[in-house]
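Teaching assistant here, posting this on the class forum so everyone can see the example we discussed in section. The complex has four components, and the goal was to see what a joint structure prediction looks like when all of them are supplied at once.
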Amino acid sequence: MDEQSAKKVRSRVRRIAGQVAGIERMVEDGRYCVDVLNQIAAARSALDALGIELLSKHLESCVLGKGARGEHERAKEMTREELVAEVRTVLARFLK
Amino acid sequence: MDEQSAKKVRSRVRRIAGQVAGIERMVEDGRYCVDVLNQIAAARSALDALGIELLSKHLESCVLGKGARGEHERAKEMTREELVAEVRTVLARFLK
Amino acid sequence: MDEQSAKKVRSRVRRIAGQVAGIERMVEDGRYCVDVLNQIAAARSALDALGIELLSKHLESCVLGKGARGEHERAKEMTREELVAEVRTVLARFLK
Amino acid sequence: MDEQSAKKVRSRVRRIAGQVAGIERMVEDGRYCVDVLNQIAAARSALDALGIELLSKHLESCVLGKGARGEHERAKEMTREELVAEVRTVLARFLK
């Protein structure tokens, strides 16, 4: 992944950590359940967006970019068929 | 919510905060995308489980328990129809 | 469920049946995968909306409406705790 | 897509059509809401599985298989970057 993408991913994760810290405080303060549920739904959407971001980067650098510079060590030892099978397993986890 | 349920909810939120901190470290360390994605999927499932827990408690204490002790201040001013409409909106956020 | 709600639910289900029939035709015609995927995502959202509609009606007629007219036979034999536990299980299926 | 994969996809879609027809009958017969909801959750999971199947095939034939036999006409006119962007949009629809 190029530095700009990595930076964007890191800032997304930090924002999610902030959202979860917010949920923790709301629970400690005994806030109204529905308000907490809305924050949980927001954190979940942010995790989904992060997942989509990372998966696209993975498709670019490791699956399509096979053999090119940006590729991960782990992906290097895998065939394209193995990489697609791996993406399929990950998708099933997100959509299960 | 009774103290035992509140404790369980708090411990779930703390575990999720730990999972997100783990994702942050994995991203910093440039770990393999698919490993990060699996952690994201796990945190997402944990958030869903927390949402279901909280929503059940909300149905028990505020919607069904209308008029009883455990009810939230905010729920007191609402009719049952308003409470069901609110639950419906929250569900739509989770399933949208 | 009152007649108006039942009518609305039936019309939603018929629309989903139409969407799935459309997906079947697209697959038979060898249409572009991404177009089929968009239709699948649309049918999935429609199923979610139907689920939320039915769950709200269930909360109104069987869980909150315990003892009242609209209640289902099956719900009559259950306590409120059992009804909330059942809703919780259903939510877990939708969000699993 | 090869003939064997296409056959598998068609049989999945037909099974989903059967599930939705079952939901239609359950609604007509005024069956217990929670039973209908369980069927809706099952149809939704089947749609997700179909989506994952199709997306994997799309990655194999059109994104990775760019230039090879199995590729769709529509994919031929697109660059790899455009194909990844399209996959990203589809994922966002499934996870939104």
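For the discussion questions: Chain A touches chain C at residues 96 (CB under 8 Å). The helical segments of chain A are 3-28, 33-64, 73-76, 80-95. Think about how each of these relates to the inputs above.
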